[in-house]
Amino acid sequence: MFNFFRSVKTQDALSVKPKHIAIIMDGNGRWAKKRLMPRMSGHRKGLESVKTVITQCQKLNIPFLTLFAFSTENWLRPSQEVKFLMSLFQDSIKKESSALIKNNIRFKLIGDRKPFPKKLNDKINSLEKFTEENTGLTLSIAINYGGRWDIVNAVNEYRKQNHFKKTFTQKNLIQNLSLNFAPDPDLLIRTGGEKRISNFLIWQFSYTELYFTEKLWPDFNEKAFMAALFEFQKRERRYGKTSEQL
Ligand code: IPE
Ligand code: IPE
Ligand code: MG
């Protein structure tokens, strides 16, 4: 009961909330290493933090959450780890589908799906279709995603529409990026202590507030999430203007 009242109070205290949060979920390997466990157990434990942030976004009515799960560069990891991660994604999508549907979540996958097995692609497509009309949180998972891939892919998509003679505009690009259904992220959270973007949403982060925390992803809990939101609401977003103009 006490916890319930405390969490209502915390929500009220947030006067400015991001509409779109992007997260680089980093530090699973180090979390496991610290415990003398294989890296894979860190990835598994990281799933609990995924559930925590989804629940928090729902509680706070944050409409968009985008999670970086596997980059185009992560294929360079040992093949055993890559295989493990791919099967973890496949299992999680299968296992969590009904919970996503039940919770009114609109599911999206962003990234290059071409190398995925057909079975996985079928599952992703049907979950996206099935949750298309859901009105709650839009949850985008970035798998085999790279910001550079996204931009080149968007240009190629545009070229397919055969507008060769027209001048290419920012709008043309934005309409063909994989996050074309969402506003740019207001807040990026990166766990694990590194202060870099690692080829995530390089176009969309132009005016995103960046928040870096030493916490490793499996340790990222409700308190750590709220700390990021409290830091976010202290930031003054000027978009090139002066403070006085706001
Ligand atoms: C993030 O954790 C998960 C993925 C990139 C798939 P890491 O696996 O990168 O963990 P660290 O950075 O090695 O600790
Ligand atoms: C970024 O983490 C990618 C994901 C979290 C999916 P990495 O661990 O791959 O990033 P770098 O290699 O340290 O930049
Ligand atoms: Mg890492």
UniProtKB/TrEMBL annotation:
InterPro entries: UPP_synth-like (IPR001441), UPP_synth-like_CS (IPR018520), UPP_synth-like_sf (IPR036424). This is Isoprenyl transferase. Belongs to the UPP synthase family. Homodimer. The gene is ispU. Keywords: Magnesium, Metal-binding, Transferase. GO terms for cellular component: cytosol. GO terms for molecular function: ditrans,polycis-undecaprenyl-diphosphate synthase [(2E,6E)-farnesyl-diphosphate specific] activity; magnesium ion binding. GO terms for biological process: polyprenol biosynthetic process.
